[in-house]
Amino acid sequence: ILSGNNRDKMNCYIEDNCLYLEEKNHKPKPIQKGGEIVLTVPKSMDWKKIEIDAQAAYVALQDFSAEEMEFSAGAGSIEASGLQTKKLILSAEAGAITVTDSEAAELEADAEAGVLRFSGSITDMVDADAELGNIVLNLSQSEDDFDYEIDSDLGNVEFDGVSMENFVICNKASGKMKLDSSMGNIEIYFEQD
Known about the structure:
Helices cover 0% and strands 61% of the residues. By secondary structure, the chain is an all-beta fold.
């Protein structure tokens, strides 16, 4: 179901088992600033992949599960909550992505000059790269649940407020983290410490 005050300016269709939501080519009447488009789907939908590219837009979603999710924010912002996925890929060029109360086996996070925030559980692998941007992870696990490879060049990596330099930490854990902060910041907070 497509609703909202800009629904007539959008195309919503299914092709090759993929759902598309795209702006129609309306040059004289662009989508209203502050306008809203709401896509409501049945909770029982079985998604293989969800891909969202918010160039300069604001996108919000909640309570989705899929094998893979990929979110990109050029100069826009994405807010998501209640996600469940095997693989979550987040990329913020100059925008912001916030994911809360979510679960993923793997997280790939790339903050070129933007901001990425994640809260929830990552069970297997975190690969985080903060070139000039900021990445903040609030994890439900403990610090001992992961092995670490940390490369902090001119950037900063912190665990619960404590700065970590270039380290390899082996806890013989099932989870792995590869953290690279070229000139950006990576902050990780653990709930179970």
